[in-house]
Structures are given as structure tokens and as C-alpha cells.
Amino acid sequence: MEQIPAIPKLVLRAPLSGHLMSIERVPDPVFAQKMVGDGISIDPLSQCLAAPCDGEVVQLHSGGHAVTLATTGGIEVMMHIGLDTVALKGQGFIPKVKVGDKVTIGDALIEFDADYIATHAKSLLTQIVITTQDRVAALAPRAGIVTAGKDIIMEVTLVGDKAEAKAQAGKAVTSEAILVPNPTGLHARPAAVLANVAKKFKANIRLQRGEDQANAKSVVAIMGLEVSYGDKVNLMAQGPDAEEAIAALIPMLQQGLGDEGAVPAPAPASVTLPETAAPAPRPRSEDPNLLLGVAASHGIAAGNVCQVRHEEIAVKEEGEDPYLERRTLDDAIEQAKLQLAALQARLQSEANPGKAAIFAAHQELLEDPDLLDIAISAIAKGKSAPFAWRRAYTTYAAQLSTLKSELLAFRANDLRDVGERVLRLLTGVETKEPELPPRTILVAEELTPSDMAALDRSRVVGLCTTGGGATSHVAILARSLDIPVVAGIDPRALDVPQGAPVILDGGKGTVRLNPTPEEVARIQRLLERQAARRKADLETALQPAQTTEGQRLEVVANIGGVADAQQAVRLGGEGVGLLRSEFLFMGRGVAPSEEEQARIYRAIAEALGPERPLVIRTLDVGGDKPLPYLPIPREDNPFLGERGIRIGLDRPEILRVQLRAILRASTAGKVHVMFPMVATLAEWRAARAVLEEEREKLGVPPIPVGIMVEVPAAALMAEQFAREVEFFSIGTNDLTQYTLAMDRGHPKLAPQVDGLNPAVLSLIASTVRAARQYGKWVGVCGGIAGDPQAVPLLIGLGVDELSVSLPTIPRIKAQIRTLSLAECQQLAQEALRQDSAAAVRALCPSLEEDLDGRVG
Ligand code: PEP
Ligand code: MG
User: Fold this and answer.
1) What residues have CB less than 8 Å from 463, skipping those under 6 apart?
2) Ligand 1 pocket residues where CB is under 6 Å
3) Cα–Cα distance, 811 to 821 (Å, whole number)
4) Strands 552-559 and 576-580
5) What is the reported pTM?
6) Which ligand has an atom closest to residue 760 CA?
7) What are the Cα distances from residue 338, in Å, to 327, 393, 417, 422, 588?
8) What backbone torsions phi and psi does residue 694 show, to the nearest 5 degrees?
9) Residue 273 has pLDDT above 60, yes or no
């Protein structure tokens, strides 16, 4: 074979000042074993990565932590700042170049915040590797301390271009679709693993995502595809061993290519998205005048239909100068952020913090690097800013809507909402607010949080959508506005003529068509009575709640943050029985720090004042509610897997930080700690031990500590627990699902998941008995605490505290004042003897009975 003349050496100068280190010593096998390529590592003393040679930027990771230059001779030099820095999602990095830029030695490539990276990532060690390994004949790394731009760090002796191997004869094989399970996508490490295995085969192997493809034997090319978690990819191979290659690579890709924390993606790999994410079959009523859906916001409304359709905004596909298109997009995004900030401020000032938070989350969505990347790459390919942007957010939303977690899937709607906001700014198409007559019931396929913010509450009395569900942001907003909502309604709702009278029951999830005028008038009168009663409840909300015999009950609030605490006090809440601390952890890229948590807990305690108790439940997330920065392996039965305290004990660093924050805030009020999902005494003792260790370290006084009783095992062993805990709070939402072995969100079983089932009541009774024996108090913080039919039973069973949602506080307090303890006790005993939840409910007339039953 003819010897190809050697190309002169490639000399690389220091991209950073610092200490040189052999690549083999890097504490990451991907680099140490030269899977990405051979090179050198620097322990940096400077904070701006500079070009080590002349070249063109061929790849820049969206996180800004890695960049690749290609020399004119086709040699690719990749620089990776820090280890595991992909997880920082761009925080701490300011790229100074973009793909396609030509640079010369010493030009700034990426500025970074060394302090931030050193404290938030595994290491600051920065690797410089030649990824085109087949072009390297020899490599001579230097040692010692170097100065950026001046000293040589390595000399690379190259071999000339080898002739491209002739296309291999052989079969072409394409894999099934694979959903990428790596939480941070195919970044350097999994890309290197994939490329290394692919290289073992003779076949030409390509990785495909949508319309884009990359050589699966090139780390840089794979990284350039910017494959994210949940992306659908295919492998294509052609050559003599194509079949073997595909068979070997599929399971590796499915299992995350050795990435720690890879969560197998939520849909089976062999199916296509999004069509396969079919909603659960919807029940259909036999009665042609009754449409069934999901109860999303309680209340009844009688009104006239107004069909709302989101119009399609026309956009031009071809763009002008990509630079100008990019500027147009950036400007529109900035303007949208300003709009959202103004909306957030308005809602905050109207004491609507929950809603304000939703629009704060929208601003964050506009900073999502992956979303922006999709748009920017389309602009780079000649598309117009509106076209590129619409493609980006619709693609991204389609991906989200396929996720198994209902919570994440509903965020797709938020993304479309914020996406459309920017699109309107880009196209100048304004939203036309329909003229609504009084007593309107809006019917739509989907409503967005922006629609909700613009809603004229004086005219709209109910909402009904074919999409969405009870946990969507629209439902949350509607509940805070006290507007009844039926989500996931039978699509026949979209055919109801404009102006047709209907009766909507947000508690039952039904819409009745063609009601008689008498029916409408009766409901109207009842609603007026209800409004009057609500006004009266509010007037007495600040008075204590005691039975006719003078027995005091604490009515406290279930809250998610500081503003809820302020609202709870205004509504007569006598404290907080459940702070769902997971709200602080959701919708963000990293966990809140100890400092941030302590600040929030302190603010909540201060909002409640020195007398009102604050029960902080430690992080209660699980397989069904993943946090992006806390990957939990996919569970076959997420409700039976790692949830609640099990996660806290498995990842004690998260629990420890949270407990420290709670303890630090504990001096600001009557702070209590509560552990969720406790099933065994061992779990409780382990969690309490962590609390005690941290308390001693901080030197603060002990605080009351208790458990949620939401697993039947805890209720059945309440006596053993009662000896050790200071209080119980019964989580009837979970206790009911676990007692009946019925998923609380199951579309078909949900109506049967009723906390008034005598089995659940009996567990509550035994929990209270055990607590009494040891002088401990018992609260109920599940949904039935705010159910007027359940309140007399819970009082009769002997609970001390009811922790309810904010709007129900005045009503429940007013109801308690009408009840006799002795009668409640009798009623409770009778309820325990019934044989079904329905029979129990029949014993306890609903306050709204006159409305129910007539509607659906
Ligand atoms: C419960 O399970 O009843 C409870 C209050 O907790 P969550 O609804 O947050 O699971
Ligand atoms: Mg629970």
C-alpha cells in the first residue's frame, strides 16, 4: 500500500492557563479510556476557554460547556469544560462563538464561571481531545503549568487522509424507534459509548432523529444531533454486519448507554409518537343529553355555550438573512418575557400568587436551551423566524404530551400557550377577544393559561374542554378563580351550537344538554343561595370552629408556598397542616438550595405568625412525578415504588439539605416536620435519625415531628408508631388508593376511590384510637377533610385537625359550628358498619344535595 506523506504536525496551544494532566488520570472513564479521543486535560486557573489552534467551530453544545473546532486539514479538536457539566444546562457558561465561526489561536470560545462550576459539577478539569482518532499517528502531550494562548500543550503527528472505504456491500437495516432514556440526552459520555461500539462494526451506521442524521461512529456528530431525553431516534446500518450492529446497539441505546440515572423513556420503543399516546378510553353516556368528562374544578353552572377555537396563524416558511431572522426571534422572545413578567406582577399584586407562578414558569420555558436550539437550527437552515419558532414549540410540545406523567403532559399546553404568545409577536397577529354575553360557558378543545388570565369572570360561569385534566394549569387556575370546569369531555361538546343552554357540573364532570327553562331557573336560584351562603361563611371565617357542645376543631390549610400561607390567614386558616414542599422543587432545572429553602420556609412561618402551626412535609415525589434533576428509574408500579420518604432515604443528601433548611427556619414560628409515605418503623426511625443528626449539628431546639398516615401498614401499626411520633396526619388520598388497590388517577376506577369507604374509615378510627392512647394529635390532610359529607364523620371518629384547600376553609369552619359532637360520634359508628362508600354517603346528606342529582 502506498505510504501517504505525513502532514505537518498540529500544534495545540493552551486554551486555558493551568496545570496540565494526563488524560488517563481524568476521573471519568469516557475520557480516561480515550473513548472520545486521545488528548490532554487541564486543571484551569483562568476562566475563558480560547482556541488552541486555528479552525472553524463545527459544534457547540447548547449547554455551552463543550465546543469542537475543525482545522482546515479536517482534524477535529473537542474541548469539554469540567466533568458532568452537561447537567448544569448552560448555567455558568457564556459561549463567545457560534457554529460556523472561523477562529484563530487565542480567540475566546467560551467564558465560564469557575466558582459556580466547581461547586455545582463533579470537576473543573477541562479536556482537549482529538476526536478524529484515525488521523492521529502519534501524540505528544506536555506537562506542567501553562499560560493560555502561549504555551504548547500537545503536538499531534497526523497521518494523511485515507481513501474513503468503498461502500460496503450488504443489507440496509433500520431499527425500531428508540426513545432516548438519558436524562440529559446524548451528551459526550453516552455519545462516546455509542460511537465506540458502533466502530467495532464494518457497516456504515447512522443515528437518525426526525430529518437529521449523524454518523454513529462520530462522537461529535452524535452530540451535534442534540438528542434530548425522550427523543425518538432510529439506527440505520448498511454493510456486511448491519444486522449484528443494529441488534447490538438497540438494547444499549434503550438502556442509556451506561449513563447513570437513565430513565427508560415512557413509551414502548416500537411504537411511534405522538399518535400512540392515546388517551384512556372515555366513558360515553347512554343519555344523548348527558356528556361525560373529568371533574376538574368543583361547582355548578347554568349558562349558554360559546365555542372557542384557536385560529391557525399563517407564517411564511422561507426566511431572509438568518442573522436578521435570529434577531427578530430574540426580540420577540424578550418582548414575550416582558409581557409575562407584567402579567405575573399583576397577578401577584392581586394576591394571586399561584397564578403568578404559572406565568413565571412560562418565562422559564422561554429560556429552555433545547427549545431555542430547535428554532435556531431551523433559522440556520434558511427558515423564517416565525416558521422556525412554531416548529420548535410544536415539536417540543408534541414530545411533552407523549410523556406518561400527566403533569408533564399537561405542560405541553403551557408550551403551546407561551409559544403562541411569541408567534403572535413575530407575526403581529393579535388575539381577538370574543364578545361574551353574561353567563357564558366556554367550550374548546383546549384552553391555555393565557386564556384564563384574560378571562372575564363577570361573564364566564363555566369551562369545558375536550383536552386537559384535573391537574392541568388551566384546572388549577380555574379552581383558584372558583370557576367550575369539566375537562376531557366527550368531543360531541364541540358540536353544541353557539348560545345553546347547558348545565355544567364541575364536581361530577358532566355537561347536560337541552335542560328545560325550569331546570335552569332552579339551578340559578340555588346558585344565588350558595353565593349568599359563601358571603356569610366568609364573614365568620376568622372565628374559631367549635361544635355545638364547644368542642374545638383546628381548621388549617394545605398550601404550596408563601402566598398561599398569607391567603390562608386571610380566610381564617388556623395554621398549615400540609405544606407540599415538592412545589418548591418542581418546574426547575436544579433542586432549591438549603439557603433558598430556608428563606421560603421562614417566610411561610412568618406569614403565619408565632401562634399558627406550620407542618412542612418533606419532598414527596416519586416515579409518577419525576424531577428532571432527580432521575428515578422507570417503575412498573410507580405508586408502589420509590416515592416519598423512600426517595429521601435513598438520596439522603436531598433530605438532609431540606431538613437543615426546615430546622434553620424553625425559630421563625411553630414549625413541624412530617415524613410522607412512611410504611415501616424502620423508615420512620431512619428519617428521624437524619433530622436529629442535623439538629444537633445546627444546635437548634427540637421541633415536633410526625408522619403522614397514608399507607395502610402505617394505619395498622399506628399503635407502634404512636409511641414514637409526635403527631399523625392522615393522607386519605393515598390511604384510599392503597387500601382499595385502585389508582387514584385511574380514569375508570376514580369514582370508586372514595375515602368514605368503610375500610378507609376503619383505618382512620384505629389510627385515632392509637394516637389517643399515647396522647398524640391526629389531623386529616387528604381531600375528604374538605368534603362536607365527610366532616361530621371525621369529627365523630375523633380527629383533632382538618387540613383543607384554601377556598374551603370558611365553609368547613361554618359547617363545624352547626354540628353536635355527640351526633357526629353516633354517625361515625353507624358509618363504620355500612358496607359501601355509597351507603356511608347516604347517611350524610350533602349540603349541596339539592344541586347534585338533578344535573347529571
Ligand atoms: C394524601 O395522600 O392524602 C395527601 C394529602 O398527599 P398527596 O395528595 O400530596 O399525595
Ligand atoms: Mg399522599
Assistant:
1) 297, 441, 442, 444, 447, 474, 478, 483, 484, 485, 486
2) 578, 580, 620, 710, 731-734, 781-782
3) 18
4) parallel
5) 0.55
6) 1
7) 17, 19, 15, 11, 20
8) -70, -35
9) no
